[in-house]
C-alpha cells in the first residue's frame, strides 16, 4: 500500500481496530432464516464455480433457459447464462401478481411528515410501469439498447422509470440527484443519451429544492460536447403542479405526468432479453478525471442480487425491508430496487435525511411501517448516534436483520448499532462490495456465522477472495497480513465492462495479477478490487480502505483526480492535490491543496471560486473540508506531488521520511498555515 492516497495506514489500524469478540445471531433469527444449511459452502466451492450460480438463476423466471452457464472464450469478459432469455421488469413485477397483487411493493415516505406515506401495491406498480414503458416506447421512440439518463431523487417514480426501461431493454443510467448538472452532462455525453428523465423538485433537509434547473445545465453542457438531448421528461413531485422556477423549454421539455394521460392502462409486453444484454450503467469514480460507466448485465446481475438478497439479506416476501441508501448508488439499485422486488418484498423508498427534522425519524418510519430488515451505512449510523444516542429506544420498532455497507465500521459504532438500534434482537451483516460487483462479495451468512464487529466476514457463497502483495505473491491465507484483495473466480453479478472502454476494464481490474494473458481459464484472471485487506486467522476479512486515488466519503466514492480537475478550471490555479482527511462522522473527507500560478497572491476570492468550481462540476458531496492555498506543493526531485505528506499534514500525523523531497522546508511551512 505504497500509493499516494492510501486511506488507512497500518498504524491507524493498530490503534483503532482491536480484535473483537464474536456475537452469535439470535436464535429467533436462525429459526426463520432462509439459509441454515452449511452444505452451501460445499455447493458453492471454488471447484463448483460456475455451476453453483445456477441456484441463483433458478430463483427467476426465464423465457428460455441458458445453454452455457459461463462462457470464458474472451477473457476477462466473462459471459453468464448465455442463450438464456429473461426480462427484469417481468421478474420484479408481473410474476408476483398471481400471489401478491395487493401487497405493497414500494412504501414511499415523503420528507414532510404531514404528507401521507404512499403504498404502491404490486398491481399499481404493474400498471404504472406499463404506462411509463408505453410512453418511452411509443412517445419517445426508445428501444432495446438505447441509453437513457435518469437524474431522479428518491421518489417511487424512480424505480418505476427504471423498471419501465428494463421492460423495454432500454439501458438506464441513473445519476445521483445530489450530483450537479455538469456531472450529469458528463454521464449523458459518455452514454450518448438522447433522453433525460428528471423531476421538478424534491425535499431535503426542510427545503423543496429546485431540481429541474440542473437539467438545463446538463443539456446545454452536453450539447457543447456534441450530444443533443432531444427530450427532457420532467416528473412532477406534486402531480398537477409544477414545482420549479425553471421554465419548460418548448419542444424539448415535457411533463411526464401530463404525457402519461395518453397512455392510461396501456400494456407493454416485456422484451425477452438475452441474458448478457446490458440492464444499466452506473458511473463511479476511478483513478482518472473521468468517471467510468460500469455496465451491468440483465440475467447474471438479477440472479446475483436475487440470490444475495435471499441468503445474505434474508428477505422473505412477507418482510418490510428498508435500505436507507440512495437509489442513485449501486446499493440502491441492487438492494432497494432489483433484489428485494425480485423476491416480492415490500421495499421502502424515503425522501430526505435520516437526521431531519430530528434523529428519531428513521425509528418513527420503522415503527410506522413495521420494518423488520434495515440496511444503512456507517456514516448514517455515526450521525444518528451522535444526534440522538437514546432516540431508537423511544420507539417500538423491531428489526430481525440489519446491514451495514460502504465503509469500514468501527467496533464502538457497531456496538451501538447492535445494542441500541437493534435492541440486541437483530443479526448484523457487514457487507463489503463495490459498484463494479453488482452485489455482496464478503459478509457473514447471517444464520451460519457469528458476527465480528469491525470485520466484513468471509467471502459470501461462491466468492473466493485471495490477497496478493505488491510484488504479485499470494499472502498466506489467514495470516493477518495486509495486501490487495482480489477475487479468484468470476460471479454473475460482476460488471461486464466499462462502457466504451474495454481496455481500461482489463487494465484496471485484471492486468495486475493476471497469470497468463493468453489463458482462457478464469483461474488465471483474478479480479483486483482496489482495496487493501487482511484475512484474520478465523477466515474473516477486514477491509482497510482504498489503495488507489479514490476517497470514500460517507460511503461514496470520489476520485481525487475529478476534484483536482475541477479546481484547475479556476484560472489562477497552477496545481492541485486532494488527500483524505479523517472525519468523525463521514469516515473520510477531501482536503484540497492548491498552488497558484507565479506572481499571484492568495485571496479568499480564489479560495471560494475553487470551492464553487468543485461543487459545480461534481456536486455538494465533493465539497472539500478545506481548500488550502499553499506557497508550493511538497514535491519529489522528479517533480511529483507527495500526496502522502499532505495527507499527514491534514491528519496531524508525522510525515515520515521526507528526505526524497526537493523542498522539505515546505512541510513545516504548510503545517504552520492557519486553515
Ligand atoms: C457498495 C459500495 C466501494 C468501496 C470499496 C471499499 C468501500 C464498501 C465496505 C467498504 C469496508 C465495507 N467499502 N463496503 N469498506 N467495509 N463493508 O459501497 O460501492 O460506492 O463502489 O464503493 O467502498 O473501499 O472499494 P462503491
Automatic annotation (TrEMBL):
The lineage of its organism: Bacteria, Pseudomonadati, Pseudomonadota, Alphaproteobacteria, Hyphomicrobiales. SUPFAM superfamilies: Acetyl-CoA synthetase-like (SSF56801). It is an enzyme of class 6 (ligase). Residues 562-640 form the AMP-binding enzyme C-terminal domain. This is Acetate--CoA ligase. Residues 44-92 form the Acetyl-coenzyme A synthetase N-terminal domain. Residues 94-491 form the AMP-dependent synthetase/ligase domain. Its EC number is 6.2.1.1. GO terms for biological process: acetyl-CoA biosynthetic process from acetate. Belongs to the ATP-dependent AMP-binding enzyme family. One of its GO terms (molecular function) is ATP binding. PANTHER family: ACETYL-COENZYME A SYNTHETASE, ACETYL-COENZYME A SYNTHETASE 1. Keywords: Acetylation, ATP-binding, Ligase, Nucleotide-binding.
